[in-house]
Amino acid sequence: MLKRIYLKRYGKTLIAFAILIFGLYFLNAHGTVSSWHAQNKYYHSSDFERSFKEQPESFTYWDDKLEKDMTYTSIKEYISDQLYVYGRAYPDHHISAQQAQEYNPKTTYFTRFGGDFNILTIFIVSLAGFLIFFVDEKTAFNRFLFGLPQKRKQLFGAKLLYVALPILMIFLLAQLFYITYLKIGIPDPYLNASWSQLIHSIINNFSLTILLFAVSIFIGSMVGNLAFGPLTWVIFSFLASLIPSSVSNFFNLFSFNQPKGYPFNLENLFIVRIGKTGGYWWMIPIFLVISLLFIWWTYRKFKNLSLENDGDYLLHHSSRWPVWFLMWGFTSFIALNYFTNPWQTYLVLKDSSKAVSLFSTISSTALVLVILGLVLFVVVFFSSIKNVWQNYRGKRNNLDVTRF
């Protein structure tokens, strides 16, 4: 019964979602393959051959060992180098793709052809996670579901099975289609990434997408305000896009006096693009465990969802303090490590004439924490603050602090 209900409500939407995701990955793969073949055709043209013969000294690459620019010994060597799909840098950086043939987990590899819709597809999947709970709440579909004889545990499980799981499977199949298209469309050895490397990249990317999807489900199930609910998800998505840089900046605070740095590449912790960069296997269980915790939290609250709080910022008043703390920690981490960077400034200028005092650094950190805490307190507890203010104006008596 629940399967029929959910498929009737979401069936056409899932088909449209599949067309959109597969369409984006097709455009991405087709663009890469078409760009490669166009470059291959140009490099084998008489115009390019004439250009290379007239100015061979202008075709150079950077040699890491010799630490200087080197000229290509022949046009064949140059063409072969330029047609490799994955390199250690973009083509205009003049770093030879030959250096990217042997896989190194500490190296970040870039695609040298085509466009990139990978981040957009992750954004769309995350949005779908938010909407499958938020829309049902705002369209009163939850009222219909709660009137059914099934328990809420069954309602929640069925939605994950018949709606959330198909969304993730569509996304995963589209990714497999993408790498298959590349393998078929670009001949060896120029697609210089093995099947295992590409699948490794997909698994890491997919686990990260599951995390964003789970957090979006959590947000969609917790917020009730028609304006601030979607705005919360938009702000979360924006801040989530800054997590890789924020995490790198945070870890770099502890490596100023470590010339060797870390045994892993900070840029490869979060794989947002499918390619030769596979990331680290140990990040996958981290993403999945956090995802399960958010799904578990969502499930616990869904079982006790009260329709009386519809319209409030948070549907579950008992979760306001945990949610406030979670939002405060998340936004503070990004604000301090991406936007303000007080500790990075302190460490960089520590031994210079422009050194910043430790007191000033601590003060600026505390100021950011307090401002964000107050702003988020107003957002999360707005309904209670509003009630307290109304009682104060109406009765002119002591504030009812127990509302918090």
Automatic annotation (TrEMBL):
<keyword id="KW-0812">Transmembrane</keyword>
<feature type="transmembrane region" description="Helical">
    <location>
        <begin position="231"/>
        <end position="254"/>
    </location>
</feature>
<keyword id="KW-1133">Transmembrane helix</keyword>
<keyword id="KW-0472">Membrane</keyword>
<feature type="transmembrane region" description="Helical">
    <location>
        <begin position="320"/>
        <end position="339"/>
    </location>
</feature>
<feature type="transmembrane region" description="Helical">
    <location>
        <begin position="279"/>
        <end position="299"/>
    </location>
</feature>
<feature type="transmembrane region" description="Helical">
    <location>
        <begin position="198"/>
        <end position="219"/>
    </location>
</feature>
<feature type="transmembrane region" description="Helical">
    <location>
        <begin position="117"/>
        <end position="135"/>
    </location>
</feature>
<feature type="transmembrane region" description="Helical">
    <location>
        <begin position="359"/>
        <end position="385"/>
    </location>
</feature>
<feature type="transmembrane region" description="Helical">
    <location>
        <begin position="156"/>
        <end position="178"/>
    </location>
</feature>
<protein>
    <recommendedName>
        <fullName>ABC transporter permease</fullName>
    </recommendedName>
</protein>
